[in-house]
Amino acid sequence: MKPSTRRRLFQGVLYAVFVIVILVVVFLADWDAIRTNFFNLEVAAATFPEIVVIAAKNTVIYTVIAFIGGLILGLILALMKLSPVLPYRWLATGYIELFRGLPALLVIFGFAYAIPIAFQWRPPGGSVGAGLIGLIVVSAAYIAETIRAGIEAVPKGQVEAARSLGINPTWTMVSVVLPQAFRIITPPLTNELVILIKDTSLLFIAGLALGERELTTFARDSLTSLANATPLVVASLLYLVITLPLTQLVAKLERHNKRGR
Amino acid sequence: MTSVSKGSSAVSTTEPAIEVRALCKSFGSNDVLKGIDFHVDQGEVVCVIGPSGSGKSTLLRCVNRLEEPTTGSVMVEGVDITDPETDLDKMRTRIGMVFQQFNLFPHLTVLGNLTLAQQRAKKRGKAEAMEVARRNLAKVGLAEKENAFPSQLSGGQQQRVAIARALSMDPDMMLFDEPTSALDPELVGDVLEVMKQLAREGMTMMVVTHEMGFAREVGDRVVFMDGGVVVEQGKPEDVLGNPQHERTRSFLSKVL
Question: Which transformation does this protein catalyse, written as a reaction (chain B) (predicted)?
Fold first, then answer.
């Protein structure tokens, strides 16, 4: 058999398998059950408008708070890790290794339940606040490593140029190194943001009041009360509505940044 | 009051701009500079030549302490640069530096590159910084490029912007570290022209270079370095035209 014939035959087999699988799914699937349980428009309508004006809104708010908190704490940790002062480096390294090695769920448990019980102290913002502190503490560990990598990726000549002009180390970091570092790490930082959007679902274990519920908690409650899976599908679509434009935005930012570099 | 200030200004004009004594610099076990004595007088243009690895760039980088000298002293206008008590940032505003790789700030426009240090290190207001920047940009022939980003400029244009950036600090002297080595041959001329004009205006200059034509035409003195020591120095026509040392002759025969 000639190689070109063999290649065509192999492709034909691939297409045939594809068509057969599709046909089997189409004929064997219980379309009625799928439609009434997952794509039930009446149930979907019942989740509105709360699933948007409460749940989706809260997801966005929690993500923004956790991301800004994670950025600030992560930046401090990254600068500590690059500090000439040895104990600072130890502290930052220990923190980063610890919280990258722990499940976020466990950390949120700690801030929501363990600390309040042990010290009779409730974090600001009640259960949500406690859960958010847990998210910030964990995401800061990842963000710190991303920022440190970005700072180290800025060419040494940039620092030398700034210092030779008499700019002090602090201003060199603020005006020359960090702006370039953040351009470099825009893609991985957006990954952190997308992961955070999804991780806000972990807040449910902190115990959210009705008005505090985010998308996943809300969808789960609706799933129970309406005995139908459609709320999960609606919540999924809303997650995508938030995350997809974000990844598009990053692609655009990257193209824009290329011009400035 | 008046007499004191008059006295101090008179002293500063007689001091050498740069005076290096018994300078040694090692990177680990690698001795790059082995006891350098070197000076640049005010208004003098000194070209430092030599094979790569001879330590000429390291010597230049020790002058503004981008490299920490291992032993020896570096005095700039009578101030000991190696003294921990010296306000290094303030001294560096008086020492302009131009790099082989330009090192423009890629996230800032040309104007941003020229005003940043003026505002951060010299504490000039924005209006004054812009005015100084525009004046120096015109001087290097790039007035129309003030809103461009470095990536939109040719190598030669970038290096001229880098020179204008250093000049915007109103430095007393300029250090050039192989300023044309990273340029395409056809772009070298514009940069050298700007440097020649600076020399004509009486700027104190220390130039590490491979441009023998520039050294001959513009240099008041040429210093030949090899193996971490100053082998010979003197007037360009003497060092380049009638070298006394075998190492100088052998180097020049390769580059001329």
Answer: a polar amino acid(out) + ATP + H2O = a polar amino acid(in) + ADP + phosphate + H(+)
pLDDT digits (tens, 9 = 90+) for B145-202: 999 999 999 999 999 999 999 999 999 999 999 999 999 999 999 999 999 999 999 9
Is A2 within a domain?
A: no
Query: Considering only CB atoms, which chain A residues are within 8 Å of B166?
Result: 165
Parallel, antiparallel or unpaired: strands B221-226 and B229-234: antiparallel
* Beta pairing partners, A160: none
In a mutational test of the A interface, the residue from B87, B107, B118 whose CB has the highest number of chain A CBs within 10 Å is B107
Interface predicted TM-score of the whole assembly (ipTM), two decimals: 0.91
CA distance A87 to chain B (A): 24
The residue range of the domain holding A141 is 32-260
Confidence of residue B1 (pLDDT cuts 50, 70, 90): very low
- Residue A11 belongs to a domain: no
pTM reported for the whole predicted model: 0.87
Q: Crossing angle, helix A126-153 and helix A57-81, to 10 degrees?
A: 50
Cβ contacts of B149 on chain A, cutoff 8 Å: 259-260
pLDDT in tens, B113-124: 999 999 999 999
Q: Which residues of B touch A163 (CB under 8 A)?
A: 66, 89, 92
Q: Please tell me the number of Cα atoms within 13 Å of A75 on its side-chain side.
A: 13
Q: Establish if A166 belongs to a structural domain.
A: yes
Q: Which tokens in the block code for residue A259?
A: 């011009």
